[in-house]
Structures are given as structure tokens and as C-alpha cells.
Design goal:
This protein is α+β, with helices and mostly antiparallel strands. It is 27% helix and 15% strand. The chain has three helices and two strands, in the order αββαα.
């Protein structure tokens, strides 16, 4: 998942989970993520912005399939690996 530029058309609603975590926990989460994943802002349907784990857009576009039509990673895995 990557963030669109301000005013850019497109995007997709992706189901996710929200957790309230301390800064210390965030640092531990980030330390355990694979290379290039990072903490960034995600806009929810109600307009609220919260932190999420993102991937750099320039690395995501091209080599990886767009799985947004599946609604999320778990749904993509279920649809393609069953």
C-alpha cells in the first residue's frame, strides 16, 4: 500500500485493523518489518488519518500486481492460493 499524491484520482478502500500502540511499540513493529516498509499516514473512509505500514510507490508500481480489487492482502491470498 502506498499513499497517492494530494489531489490524485484513484485509490481503493482496503479493509484493515486499527490498534492503539505506544511509540515504543511502533519502533518495535517497524524494526520487525521487511526492508522498505515504513510508517506513514493512511486516510480512512471518514477522512481521519492514522499511521499505517506503507511501501514506497516507486518500488511497488510495476514489479508487483495491483491487488486492490481483492480488498486486501488476506483476500488476495485466499483468492490466489486456495
Amino acid at each position: 500500500m502506498y499513499r497517492l499524491d494530494e489531489g490524485e484520482a484513484g485509490g481503493a478502500a482496503i479493509w484493515g485493523e486499527l490498534y492503539e500502540v505506544t511509540e515504543e511499540r511502533w519502533l518495535a513493529i517497524e524494526a520487525g518489518e521487511p526492508p522498505h516498509l515504513y510508517r506513514g499516514m493512511v486516510r480512512l473512509e471518514d477522512g481521519q488519518e492514522v499511521y499505517g505500514i506503507l511501501y514506497p510507490r516507486d518500488l511497488a508500481e510495476g514489479p508487483y500486481p495491483d491487488i486492490s480489487t481483492h480488498g486486501g492482502w488476506r483476500q488476495y491470498m485466499d483468492a490466489t492460493h486456495s
